[in-house]
């Protein structure tokens, strides 16, 4: 009730409407809104995006102050740092030379540790974005590693790459890549697409670059960092700008802390986004004979959420004036989801089924439609947002038009909505941005966002302690079939939450209750590509791999990039290389679990099979092949080298823990250093080995 009253301030009808829907768990606002709505300083925004004020002492510390003030009021920060001059760049004012990016990042790292979100409620969080042509990029991607000199690390920051298409093309072609200093090669951050390519190649031809390296050397260094730490994030600069409704404002230079917000920033504008997520499981209807999804109910709730978030823009307390300036001019909001996996399970759709694929697309079409319709209705009353003219929507171009997609579900009357928008415009420049929902999904009892379950049994660690969780849908099905026994429970724990090797579990339940480790990651990426034409910002896409290799990661990255994704990777999640001892599990059950492991051993004797542009073949980077047994590519460590990840979710009695908050620590340890021709063995069919279905990218 406090949240509803704080948002609507005297509008009794809207207050009651919001209260009833939130109390019935149809949707929830983001954590800062829940913290601060109805308080004397209602800072309800989740995300703030900044660029460096200037490449100078004044500019750097002015930006640092902005970050501190935002973090103080529970905001997460995304910061573009590409314009900071590189190491050994000349400083005219002092006749000296710059120390580069890393010392500055350590200052921001310490500020994030000191200024927590909302006075001890959540740790301060800053994601820093860098374009891969910056001369200090190799140091940048290593800032979270657990080895190396401490003065070269900034482990409390989240590092992200803002990647132009040209870099991906150079990697694919095994071409050279020139590293530059933004002080010596200005303007690259202000252009994208063909303009960026033209300017970058002009600087190359003029010899203004610092160093030219094989593009794959940097690529393998990025993959190495991802295997060790789960980062850097991968966000594609050209896709974000090409498919943005804010492209009329200027070049977008970064995303946010969780890679789902894509908004314009400048010296006098700090982009802001207010978030809310809808509980998809609430719209599964069961009449006893059949189950269906209530799309009309979803539209009604999304329209309420859109009106609420639009109101939050006006009621909000802004920690800095640049944030107010941006938010009142462009009025972006961020609608997300939670419980997509729950909805699939309730409808009896395996996550990798065709039915799930169709429902995923239809859900996001309805969300985008309802949000646009609500925003258009608001514009009819209050007028369009200030910078509406010149935007793609003002020209009749919607998000799916930028993808070359025509909605064919028949669930939405797009022609009628286009006519309304042409007449009235829209009140909000951006609308849909599925976020991680790591905290709020616990309030509503859903699985996070649009992700599959990571395990069917685990410990959940939250601020108030930890508790034991069993997948409620699996538990319900096992109880209904009289299969939930002490032995099944122990087997579930012994197999790390997987039902695939429990003989008493029927095949239909094994298909329905696959964990994310047992679903091909191509399925996850395909679902992301399918929903993206209805997401006008981006979404926080995690990738899970049991045993990540350069081959799998390269195939995955290029598949998502070619599919047009804006966010290619939020975190890379991996499993632990070894299981903790399970003291509470019967020794005979534990022995059987070891005999039939829920994840496969690896073999280095077979070439891996990957799919690039729909073709199978020897896996390499992008479209090039790499022969097994040959020399390692530039920057790739020799085969057999191992590194262990120290960060991550621990285990208690062998049961996986999950953090409540989106945290950089990855579960367990990854193994890098495999040759690109290495592949897991999982099973033998006849005389032929088949690639691992769990780990194949």
From TrEMBL:
It catalyses: a 2'-deoxyribonucleoside 5'-diphosphate + [thioredoxin]-disulfide + H2O = a ribonucleoside 5'-diphosphate + [thioredoxin]-dithiol. Residues 597-612 have a biased composition (Low complexity). NCBIfam families: NrdE_NrdA. InterPro entries: NrdE_NrdA_C, RNR_lg_C, RNR_lsu_N, RNR_R1-su_N, Rrm1. Belongs to the ribonucleoside diphosphate reductase large chain family. Keywords: Deoxyribonucleotide synthesis, Oxidoreductase. Residues 617-632 have a biased composition (Gly residues). Residues 597-697 are annotated as: Disordered. SUPFAM superfamilies: PFL-like glycyl radical enzymes (SSF51998), R1 subunit of ribonucleotide reductase, N-terminal domain (SSF48168). Signal peptide: none annotated. It is an enzyme of class 1 (oxidoreductase). One of its GO terms (cellular component) is ribonucleoside-diphosphate reductase complex. One of its GO terms (biological process) is deoxyribonucleotide biosynthetic process. GO terms for molecular function: ATP binding; ribonucleoside-diphosphate reductase activity, thioredoxin disulfide as acceptor. This is Ribonucleoside-diphosphate reductase. Its EC number is 1.17.4.1. Provides the precursors necessary for DNA synthesis. Catalyzes the biosynthesis of deoxyribonucleotides from the corresponding ribonucleotides. Residues 639-648 have a biased composition (Basic and acidic residues). It comes from Cystoisospora suis. Residues 414-436 form the Ribonucleotide reductase large subunit domain.
